[in-house]
UniProtKB/TrEMBL annotation:
Keyword Cell membrane: no
PROSITE patterns: SEC7
UniProt protein name: SEC7 domain-containing protein
Organism of derivation: Gossypium lobatum
Pfam families, per database record: DCB, Sec7, Sec7-like_HUS
Entries under InterPro entries matching the protein: DCB_dom, Mon2/Sec7/BIG1-like_HUS, Sec7_C_sf, Sec7_dom, Sec7_dom_sf
Length: 660
């Protein structure tokens, strides 16, 4: 049989190199396998569950067992012929099937694990043989190495690269790693096993790092080493799969709906590694493995050194090669990496809002404007696909009454958060009205009508959800109401939400409203407070003195210089730093007192003068007028000398230095 012609010489060599007493069981197994191979011939009807082409499953396990025993011996003279036979089996396409932790008793799974293990015995020739076998196994179109088993293969090559003493072995390991990653992601692009992949140029891998290994002879050897393995399986089309090994295929960035059954084996392992498989869909196996490898490389690139050894050179090299492999992925990435990104982002974002919003208030406040509002508010030149994806997401969001209420209460009624609900409504309204007359837009007439229709649907959905939420409150009466965005906060905390300094304390919506009228009044007060505060901030950014006067009159800020200085120093969201500096430099009596209080609030003790002035100026920008700068710097010099009496002979010296 063809398998016999490959395995026979290697088994003879294992018998010849074995120590008769120490390896007697291996010798016995090899002789039994040789006898079995002499009686076998290629079967016309191949066993689909067999790991070897042309043999039954039981016969294949029997003849591969001595190869496994030779690898497990950790003896180089036995491992070398075993690895040679495996390379030939993989490169000729005689091995087939899926290799993963879902079938841990499989002889192929055990062999791959043993190959990875024998790579750490420290023998240079064995390291190269292991690299060759692992690359040929991944390259073989008849074998699908999956999940944690694939990660183990990558980790073995990674460890050889970091630990090898021979420079050539290091370059070979790095090249094999890059080639394996390229094969995995080329298959993920095509969602097929049988794909043609280019060979990674070794010289490019050494362009920025490992320059000390960049020698002509070493590069030439490693390039031939990789090319030989990659090209070894060419020319045997009859041994390749006629159909790709795939699960449900991706369609438009989303997965098909499955029957909801739980998966086991390797997919449980993948969940541990971070490739989450939801009950309503799965990606194809090949693409799952691609994303699994990508996440694993990201984890390797983010490893931190220990406190005992902060300058760990091996860790640094490991992070560097991980980043280089990610660069290989990006440089060779196709459509799977740069299409439907808004759809995927919005899908993830919807899950966060639906399930985890109670713990991600600040994060959602940052990402909502970036991912959703930025696209929604682009009226003239939007991407049709992106905006439709965002409108579809908003349609789902506005369909949940509790999410709408939570967004309004926790963002639009919070002085430290953006007005998300207001911007959603305004963005939808502008989209529904369409581009202004006379403006230039990239939208076709059909696209414009589609946007208008979807926007109106979302606006109607908001009204319906708000009505449904109110109906629910009225029907429930004093019973429990739906869960809200944040943790429990009593009605008492709402009534005392305005702090002594005039700012609004951090308030959260009570999930179990004992008094709907009280809470509604509190929410209304919070919203009114924020609107008035933002009005004052806007006025301050145009005319600082009038803005401060407005904020004092509306009791948003105290009427003492110290309270105003504290308000400016906190740099409330929306305050213009240039206008803060302009106000601090004013010569009016109250503004001057505010500037003095502002400077006196700093403690410059034990600070270097340059450090102190940088620390002082980080909250505002110096005005353009020389007299205003003069007043600010004079007070700064006085304060610095008061905190550091021995630093200068007089405050005038510090003033001259600060002004210069």
């Amino acid at each position: 049989s063809r398998c016999g012609r490959v395995l026979g010489p290697s088994l003879d060599k294992i018998v010849k190199n074995a120590a008769w007493r120490k390896h007697s069981h291996i010798v016995s197994s090899c002789k039994s396998a040789l006898d079995k191979l002499d009686t076998l011939s290629d079967s016309a009807l191949s066993d689909p569950s067999s790991p070897l082409l042309g043999l039954s499953s039981s016969d294949a396990d029997f003849v591969l067992n001595p190869i496994l025993l030779a690898l497990d011996s950790n003896y180089a003279k036995l491992a070398d012929p075993a690895l040679e036979s495996l390379f030939k089996l993989f490169s000729l396409g005689l091995v087939r099937g899926e290799i993963g932790s879902n079938i841990p008793n499989s002889i192929l799974y055990k062999i791959v694990q043993s190959v990875c293990k024998v790579g750490g015995i420290g023998d240079e020739s064995i390291e190269l043989a292991v690299l060759r076998v692992l690359l040929s196994a991944v390259r073989c179109p008849c074998v699908l190495i999956r999940g944690d088993c694939l990660l183990h293969v990558i980790r073995t090559c990674y460890n050889v690269y970091l630990s090898a003493l021979n420079g050539t072995n290091q370059v070979c390991a790095k090249s094999v790693l890059a080639q394996i990653v390229l094969i995995v992601f080329t298959r993920a692009e095509e969602d097929s096993m049988d794909v043609s992949t280019k060979t990674v140029p070794v010289s490019e891998l050494l362009e920025f790092t490992d320059k000390n290994l960049n020698e002509g002879s070493s590069i030439y050897y490693c390039q031939n080493f990789v090319s030989e393995v990659v090209n070894a399986s060419e020319g045997v089309p009859d041994l390749k799969f006629s159909q790709p090994i795939t699960g449900p295929e991706l369609q438009n960035g989303e997965s098909k709906v499955s029957n909801g059954e739980e998966k086991d084996g390797v997919e449980e392992e993948e969940t541990k590694e971070g490739v989450e498989s939801s009950s309503d869909g799965v990606t194809s196996k090949i693409r799952e493995d691609g994303f699994l490898v990508f996440k694993y490389l990201c984890k390797l690139s983010m490893k931190f050194s220990s406190q005992e050894n902060p300058d760990d050179e091996i860790l640094l090299r490991g992070k560097t090669v991980s980043l280089e492999l990610l660069k290989v992925i990006m440089n060779n990435g196709g459509s799977i990496w740069h299409t439907n990104e808004r759809q995927l982002l919005c899908s993830i974002f919807m899950s966060l809002i639906t399930k985890y919003r109670s713990g991600l208030k600040a994060e959602i406040g940052i990402f909502f404007p970036m991912l959703i509002l930025r696209v929604l508010e682009n009226i003239l030149q939007p991407s049709f696909v992106q905006k439709m994806t965002v409108l579809n997401l908003l349609e789902k969001i506005v369909g949940d009454p509790q999410i709408i209420i939570d967004i309004f209460v926790n963002y639009d009624c919070d002085v430290d958060s953006p007005n998300i609900f207001e911007r959603i409504v305004n963005g939808l309204l502008k989209t529904a009205l369409g581009p202004p007359s006379g403006s230039t837009t990239t939208l076709s007439a059909v696209q414009d009508v589609t946007f208008r229709h979807e926007s109106v649907k979302c606006l109607v959905g908001i009204i319906k959800s708000m009505g449904a939420w109110m109906d629910g409150q009225l029907k429930i009466g004093h019973s429990d109401s739906p869960k809200s965005f944040e943790n429990d906060t009593s009605a008492e905390s709402h009534s005392t939400s305005t702090a002594e300094d005039g700012t609004l304390a951090d308030c959260e919506l009570h999930p179990e409203m004992n008094s709907e009228l009280s809470d509604a009044a509190t929410v209304e007060q919070r919203r009114a407070y924020k609107i008035e505060l933002l009005k004052g901030v806007s006025l301050f950014n145009r005319k600082p003195s009038k803005g401060i006067e407005f904020l004092i009159n509306t009791r948003k800020v105290g009427n003492t210089p110290e309270e105003v200085a504290s308000f400016l120093k906190k740099n409330t969201t929306g305050l213009n730093e240039t206008m803060i500096g302009d106000y601090l430099g004013e010569r009016e009596e109250f503004a001057l007192k505010v500037m003095h209080a502002y400077v006196d609030s700093f403690n410059f003790k034990s600070m270097d003068f340059g450090e102190a002035i940088r620390f002082f100026l980080r909250g505002f920008r110096l005005p353009g007028e020389a007299q205003k700068i003069d007043r600010i710097m004079e007070k700064f010099a006085e304060r610095y000398c008061k905190c550091n009496p021995n630093s200068f002979t007089s405050a005038d010296t510090a003033y001259v230095l600060a002004y210069s």
